[in-house]
Amino acid sequence: MVNRVILIGNLGRDPEVRRLENGAVVAKFSVATNENYKDKGGEWQTQTEWHDVVVWRNLAERAESQLKKGSQVYLEGKLTHRSWQDKDGNNRRTTEVVASYFRMIGRREGGDSGGNSGYFPSAGDEMSATPERTSSVSAPAANDTPAAPEMGADDDLPF
């Protein structure tokens, strides 16, 4: 079974960071993703979805120092659900993405992105030590192109 979420979107607010009594650091922020579609009248519409994101420990400290409202971010994590009672005793439920990895993408304020505009982790990126993230994904080099198949070569493609 798989519980994996990948989001690419913009931060709706600066991360809200708390330090717990046990020393753990947690950061919460929202990410907006957009989907464009044509309505019945042929007009383009944009539907925005807001996602609540939580990061822990070193990732929370990175979020505090690197992420700002409006930043474009790539993140990976898992979908979680929590239940609690509010101050009036009402049962409440929320759905959150607990991120195990994030990376800023796009241009940063003040100039060039420093080569971090891709969607893939690089060797220098901090990776969370979670069981579901045991392998590293790397971006293909710019000059790597797949070899063209030989003409007339048989393949196993079903089409």
Can you offer a commentary on this structure?
This protein has 159 residues and is mainly beta. It has a domain of 101 residues: Nucleic acid-binding proteins (OB fold (Dihydrolipoamide Acetyltransferase, E2P), Beta Barrel). Strands 1-3-4-6-5 form a 5-stranded mixed β-barrel. A hairpin with a 5-residue loop joins strand 3 and strand 4. It is globular, with a radius of gyration of 20 Å. About 29% of the residues have low confidence.
Class derived from helix and strand content: mainly beta
Main pleated sheet: 5 strands, mixed, barrel
Q: What gap, in angstroms, lies between the N and C termini?
A: 29 Å
Number of helices: 1
* Annotated CATH architecture of the domain at 5-105: Beta Barrel
The CATH superfamily of the domain at 5-105 is identified as Nucleic acid-binding proteins
Which spans of ≥5 residues are poorly predicted at pLDDT below 50? Answer: 110-155
Name a few traits of the molecule.
single chain; 159 residues; mainly beta; OB fold (Dihydrolipoamide Acetyltransferase, E2P); 5-stranded mixed β-barrel; globular
Summarize the structure.
Helix content is 6%, strand content 42%. With 159 residues, it is mostly beta strands. It has a domain at 5-105: Nucleic acid-binding proteins (OB fold (Dihydrolipoamide Acetyltransferase, E2P)), CATH 2.40.50.
How does the SSE layout of this entry go?
Layout: E1 5-11, E2 16-19, E3 25-38, E4 44-56, H1 57-66, E5 72-85, E6 91-105
Parallel strand pairs: 4-6
Antiparallel strand pairs: 1-3, 1-5, 2-3, 3-4, 5-6
